[in-house]
Amino acid sequence: MRPCPVWSARSGYSIWVFVVVPAHWSTGFVGGRLYGRVVRRGRAIRKGLFVWAHSPSTTTGRWHSLADHVRSTSELARSFANSFGAGDLAAALGLVHDAGKASCAWQTKLAEVSGTGEKVGINHKNLGALLVRNRAQAAAMAVLGHHGGLDRVQKLVNLIHGPDDVEALERFFGVVPEARALRDGPSLLPEAWGELMLLGEMGIRLVFSALVDADHLDTAAHAEGLSRPRVAPPTDMNELVRRFEHNRAALLADRGEPSDVDRVRVGLYEDVVRRAMREPGVYRLPAPTGSGKTMTAAGFALHHAARRGKARVIVAVPFTTITEQNAGVYRHLLGEQAVLEHHSNAELDDRRLRLAAENWDAPFVVTTTVQLFDSLFGRRPARSRKLHRLANAVVVLDEVQALPVPLLVPILDGLRLLSQHFGTTVLLASATQPSFEHLAVWKTLEITPLVDDPVELFTRLKRARYEWQLKPRPTLEQIAAQICEQRQALAIVNTVGHARTLYRLVAERKPDAEVVHLSTRMCPRHREHVLTRIRALLAEDKPVLVVSTQLVEAGVDVDFPVVFRALAPAESLQQAAGRANREGKLPGLGRVVVFDASDAPVPEFYRAGVAKTLALFGPGRDPDDPALLAEYYQRLYTGLNVDEARRGAAIQDNRAELDFRAVADGPKPTGTGAGRDRRLAFRMIDEDPVSVIVTTWDEQGRATELVRQLRIGVGPLRGVLRELRGYMVPLPRAVASAPDVRALCRPVIDGHDELWEWRGDYDPQVGVDERAIGEETVW
Fold it and tell me: What are the strands of the beta sheet with 364-368, ordered from one edge?
């Protein structure tokens, strides 16, 4: 075994690279150049040959030993995967994932590019994948994809050794001798994974997550000069429950004399939490809007986690507005450090910024269903690194009716697998509970109800009546006139374009009134500011008229006497009704006016649901009737043939074939040179959003400073990204790519088109308001 002669163009002489040194030693430098001598406390200890994983930390100036890196990654990956019975497999993948870095070519190039910011650019993944392929089987794909992402299993099958592999492997064994044992032996794959293809596919996703999270954590520790990776200690869930209950009691006391609605809420909470001691599984919480469902679901999840040894609670909601609101409530109840809010889609696979990607290392996570399921069925490391946190967790799906129908089969199958094989408890919370058990994928799954008599509960909490303006169809101008007759009113429409139009019609009619607009064209900090203003006006019983997209209809805590709702599927109508007389303080019932404006037609993405809605609901047949809702969902799923729908079936087929790229990016049509069919990919939002950072709303210039820090990329960036999410606005990629819009955007990181800085105007009322932005955009 011989060392690698490494030529440094900067120093003009050779370095001999081979032997690993302990991480607490540092290498000698002359004029900033490595000269191949090890020093400790200023003394030369020995001359040696080094094998490195990463170039020197800008914090400490120390190089990162390959042996130290793979061992640390191995142990971390094991600790992450132990919760789902794959600790030995994850440890093996972690030990070999960077084996290819022992090659002379890779070490030579590392020395050349060190300090320049350039990539080594030489494949180092194949050797480790080949080393462990016989024992890890298909899970060796995790090694092959730990930088670029999971691909298709055929790439692993077709992988062959390169001409320099024998020597590189012996060099790797020289510094990590325990890796020799991984060449032969019994399978490391859990037995059930090999028997059920979809289970094996899900297992590979989670063990891949354990590997890339461990890899990123150890690499980040080196970059930041830490003595060990930054991993939160296990949480005392019993202490978290105690804190939650203490602060909840104080919150209730602050409300004063309880109303009739408050009494129903307390009774529901106590009844549901008593059932938290039951076995892990899938639970259903059918509770009307305004019944305290958000608090009740969190209480059940925390108590269940404490009693059943779950590691964390993950709450997923359909709209970012709800995450912002709910995360604030949970922080008040649990403490700032216990709650992580994560909803941005901006997770870059830039090699610096992927270290800052979220990994949900918190006891209570609030996220969106988009973030959750696009990650679960994604393939890239930055998005996947959090997935292992789903094992042995309680996952609360709030407003579960908002899950996209074309993706229900893979979503429900994923939840079934997590529940049955990975120790995950799933709670479905919604006033409009879909009848998922009518679908084949959940026909045999046991779903435990947490409410014995939902009909009686809905009857007790009925606080609004419906009015229907469908024939003749009004215009938006006529609806604006009706809104202007009210002191306080909320109008919810189906698209961003309709919201802008109706807002301006109302504002023009009542120029002196408080007229407010809400949509996700406004950055979260802006929306939070506006919602705070709305709640203050309502609390003081002052006039306020609000026009919003559907982001406000599910879970947002506002209470109006009148709600106008553009025609939409039944579940959306019922959710909107939850904003009318929410606290039950009116002497009679609140009003919900359902209208079908002739100049604001129902968008295509709602038409199937609206057709079924009109067949079942109308005057005298309200959408908050649980029996009619069950029939509605059954008709909807049958009419759309959800069980056999092309998109869901294609995703399931590609999952069974272990073609992760086809699942995430769409399959390639057989026998053609065409690109991937994105219509058959798993994407929660078909518009494929790009995040733009708004720096002009913040007068203090905080967003501008955060963008500057992100561009420099020095030091820990996770906190920077977290804070920047408050200034991000999602734009459909097709819109962001239009020349007139693209001219107003500047990439935050050169060469990456996932995150931009918005350089155009930012309207103080409606946010990003560019005429090229599509009118048919949800959110």
Answer: 339-342, 364-368, 312-317, 393-398, 425-430, 282-286, 447-449
Domain of 298, in residue numbers: 237-459
Domain tally, the chain: 5
Q: Could you tell me how many residues make up the chain? A: 779
Q: Is residue 633 one of the residues assigned to a domain?
A: no
DSSP code at position 550: G
Together in a domain, 262 and 222: no
Domain with residue 153: its CATH number is 1.10.3210
What burial class does residue 522 get, using C-beta atoms within 10 Å of its C-beta: 0-12 exposed, 13-18 middle, 19+ buried? buried
How many angstroms separate the CA atoms of 273 and 563, rounded?
A: 32
Window from 45-54, 167-176, 178-187, 409-418 with minimum mean pLDDT: 45-54
Across 9-105, where does the E strand assignment appear? 13-17, 26-30, 33-40, 43-47, 52-54, 64-65
* 555 backbone φψ class: left, alpha, beta (φ>0; ψ -120 to 50): left
Can you tell me the distance from the alpha carbon of 395 to that of 313, in angstroms, rounded to the nearest whole number? 6
Render pLDDT for 764-778 as a digit per residue (tens, 0 to 9): 999 998 664 444 444
Could you tell me if 374 and 735 are in contact, meaning their C-beta atoms sit under 8 angstroms apart? no
Amino acid in the structure at residue 339? V
Are 660 and 584 contained in the same domain? Answer: no
Do residues 83 and 173 both lie within one domain?
yes
pTM assigned to the model: 0.85
Q: Specify whether 3 is located in the same domain as 103.
A: yes
> 716 and 582: one domain?
no
d(CA 296, CA 287): 10
In a domain, 649, yes or no: yes
Residue 428 CA to residue 433 CA, distance in Å, equals 8
Kindly state whether residues 204 and 294 are assigned to the same domain: no
Residue 639 counted as domain residue: no
Do 468 and 448 share a structural domain? Answer: no
Q: pLDDT band for 607, please (50, 70, 90 cuts).
A: very high
Q: Domain boundary at 409, 427, 459, which?
A: 459
CB 724 within 8 A of CB 322: no
| Rg of the chain in Å (alpha carbons) | 28
Contact yes or no for 543/488 (Cβ under 8 A): yes
Question: Does 289 fall in a domain?
Answer: yes
DSSP labels for 597-648? -TTSPPPGGGHHHHHHHHHH-BTTB-TT-HHHHHHHHHHHHHHTTGGG-HHH
- Between the alpha carbon of residue 681 and those of residues 149, 219, 651, 704, 732, the distances in Å are 16, 32, 7, 35, 16
Nearest CA to 76 out of 493, 392, 359 is that of: 359
Q: Fill in the DSSP letter of residue 345.
A: -
pLDDT interval class at 455 (50, 70, 90): confident
Rounded-to-integer distance, Cα 407 and Cα 683, Å: 8
Same-domain pairing of 582 and 695 = no
> Residue 650 is which amino acid?
A
Question: What per-residue confidence (pLDDT) applies to 104?
Answer: 93
User: Cα angle at 162 between 156 and 163, to 5 degrees?
Assistant: 165
On whether the CB atoms of residues 18 and 7 are closer than 8 A, the answer is: no
Q: What is the CATH number of the domain that holds 319?
A: 3.40.50.300
> Running DSSP on this structure, what letter comes out for residue 566?
E
CB contact burial 294-331 (16+ within 10 A = b; e otherwise): bbbbbbbbbbbbbebebbbbbbbbbbbbbbbbbbebbb
Q: By C-alpha distance, which of 270, 316, 322, 315 is closest to 291? A: 270
| The domain boundary residue, chosen from 204, 231, 258 | 231
325 backbone dihedrals φ, ψ, rounded to 5°: -65, -50
Pairing of strands 425-430, 447-449: unpaired
pLDDT at 192 over 60: yes
- 215: DSSP letter: H
